[in-house]
Amino acid sequence: MTKNIIALLCLLLLLHGCASNKIIERSSTSLHDTKEARLEKLKHIQQWQIKGKIAFLQKNKRESASLFWQYHQDTGQQTLKLTTYLGINVLTLHTDNGQHRVEIDGENYQSDNLEQLIYSLTGLILPTNALNYWLKGQVYSAADTISYDKQSELPNKLTSYYQGNIWQISYKKYQQVNDVSLAHQLSIKQNDLTIKIMINQWKL
């Protein structure tokens, strides 16, 4: 009788251990959203802010700066600042009502075409319209394609057809920000131009 009770207790403990393992396995896989669930969350993000560093790498040109970028999707308002490592202002952008105002060296310039304005003033190619989407791992147009990591289901590469050129965006170092996984390192390539963005802080 005693042996039967001991055997029964052992069996119950074994079954409880198996059940516990199954619960742990299920909870560990639920730490990551599916790609569909993540994209649904991104649709509801109406404003964001990033702080970090940005570098522009070309054959005969290398530029880098500290980056601050705040964007309000519902109003289209944005503020973008590039500064040197010494804190010296390189460029300050304010967008309101479709008009972009850029301040460089104490002078103000205004246009409704932001990318052309930045290029004419600095010689830098910054695809700001598409970057609003690329930063979050979203396609800019229906022609864009994303490849996902099989395990995490997070974007690792995005191919975008923007302004007549093919852009390749790579994503690394995802972290949870307000229950959404966002990359903190991006590499953006188009022909001989590479733009590297390292994000130290996301705010949603």
CATH topology descriptor: outer membrane lipoprotein receptor (LolB), chain A
| Total helical segments | 4
Separation of the first and last Cα atoms: 64 Å
SSE string, helix = H, strand = E? HHEEEEEEHHEEEEE
Largest sheet: 11 strands, antiparallel
Overall pLDDT score = 85
Which spans have pLDDT < 50 for at least 5 consecutive residues?
Answer: 1-30
CATH top-level class: Mainly Beta
Beta-strand proportion: over 45%
The level of helicity is 25-40%
**Radius of gyration (Å):** 24 Å
What is the total tally of β strands? 11
Strand neighbour order, sheet with most strands: 6-5-4-3-2-1-11-10-9-8-7
Description of the molecule:
The protein is of the alpha+beta class. It has a single domain, classed as outer membrane lipoprotein receptor (LolB), chain A, CATH 2.50.20.10. It contains four helices and eleven strands; from the N terminus they run ααββββββααβββββ. It has an eleven-stranded antiparallel beta sheet with strand order 6-5-4-3-2-1-11-10-9-8-7. A hairpin with a 2-residue loop joins β5 (99-104) and β6. The longest helix has 28 residues, at 2-29. The radius of gyration is 24 Å and the shape is globular.
